[in-house]
Amino acid sequence: MSNTIPPNEIRVSTGEARPRRRPEWIKVRAPSGETYEWLRGLMRSKELHTVCEEAMCPNIGECWGQGTSTFLMMGDICTRSCGFCDIKTGRPAPLDWDEPERVARAVKAMNLRHAVITSVNRDERPDGGAPIFAMVINRIREIHPGCTIEVLIPDFKGSEEALKIVMDAQPEILNHNVETVPRLFKKVQPQDRYEWAMATLGNAKRMDSLVLTKSGIMVGLGETFDEVVEVMRDLSQLKVDILTIGQYLQPSKKHLPIERYYTPEEFDEFKRLGEEELGFQWVESGPLVRSSYRAGQQARALSRLGYVRS
Questions:
Q1: Within a domain: residue 137?
Q2: Cβ(214)–Cβ(308) under 8 Å?
Q3: pLDDT tens for residues 68-107?
């Protein structure tokens, strides 16, 4: 094996190689277009936040251009300080109990067939803000029937009581991202626990056998390929239905560095392993894949196959 360092890598203090620049397969187009501008205006008019903007998602141009968005509820300040996330950390404002109504109205205005709702962590509350999720699910069903609903929830510190509040509202898809491998949890998301993530996904399926469960992993933070596969195995044992795998991209210099870029061929192999060997119903795997990327297409495809609650 050659000891030559590839041209897009540098040597770091651990003796390992770290990427110097983005490879040619990481290309992000600047957001633009009539639909994008309309959607941005809609969010501002209803005083709503989106994870697309707050987390600097690389797919915002594509998704907003198609009239889709992921709503970020409970404010734009998170009580946790994950090393990969660009959402602000601090003491959040009190919950806005009118927010679910505004989100539901935006979903109706956009005439969405599939809505994705997420939130910041609200660890200052024993229920983690779970009632807000239940309220928005119920309100969307009331004013925009026929729209499938996906909620990307926090782990609620493993609280079954908080999770049950969400599950009783019966979302079609319950998503919680594991984000990284167990060895890197304290480094990547120091206030989270791998056990809480697994409990959230396992308990959701136990509480509602008809719900589709979903999770996501970032790669490029220092994990090995085999460690990612082990997490995939853990998720498959919990009967998680949908998995997303994408390349970590450093939001700023203050965030965790990118340890390496995975190749398109490696992402293809994750997809093959997940769908052909581990039994996931759907694996979305690629350099720019994020948790909500093509979520509507996933829901519609699985609905046609009879997997989505009717």
A1: yes
A2: no
A3: 568 889 988 999 999 988 888 999 999 999 999 999 998 8
Cα separation, 236 vs 218, in Å, equals 17
Q: What contacts 226, CB < 8 A, 6 or more positions away?
A: none
- DSSP letter at 91 equals -
Instruction: State residue 9 phi and psi, 5-degree precision.
Output: -130, 155
Q: How many CA atoms lie within 13 A of 290 on its CB side?
A: 19
Select from 280, 303, 307 the least CA-distant residue to 215: 280
Q: How many domains does the chain have?
A: 1
- Tell me the backbone φ, ψ of residue 156, rounded to 5 degrees: 50, 30
The model's pTM: 0.83
Structure tokens, 140: 């969307």
Residue 89 falls inside a structural domain: yes
Q: Round to whole Å and give the CA distance between 250 and 266.
A: 20
Task: Return the structure tokens found at 280.
Answer: 């996931």
Residue 53, in any domain of the structure: yes
Beta carbons of 175 and 214 less than 8 angstroms apart: yes
9 part of a folded domain: no
Tokens of 179: 């984000």
CATH number (domain holding residue 111)? 3.20.20.70
Which regions of the chain are under pLDDT 70?
1-20, 27-69, 310
pLDDT at 61: 46
Element (H, E) at 138: helix 130-143
